[in-house]
């Protein structure tokens, strides 16, 4: 009557390495924007105990630099002229054709 504890293998509970994710299917052009932050992917594999610990840390005031950055106001767009929308450009083109 030996009861074996069911335990998943490590490869089933952890995410693969970041370098293996692309598999040679990278972009064909230069990236215009910065890619997603892949430094903290632990939310996929967090246990309830990990979530509780992170929540306690957050409540204690241990805020990540990303969260501090998110609280800063965004800089205003310094455009002197508002660009016309596609609809406005299309309407103007139709008006020119009517004349």
UniProtKB/TrEMBL annotation:
Organism ancestry: Eukaryota, Metazoa, Ecdysozoa, Arthropoda, Hexapoda
Region called Disordered, residue ranges: 18-99
Regions of compositional bias (Basic and acidic residues) in chain numbering: 48-91
UniProt source species: Bracon brevicornis
Stated name of the protein: DUF3752 domain-containing protein
Domain DUF3752 intervals: 25-98
PANTHER family: GPALPP MOTIFS-CONTAINING PROTEIN 1 (PTHR46370)
Pfam hit, one: DUF3752
Entries under InterPro entries matching the protein: DUF3752, GPAM1-like
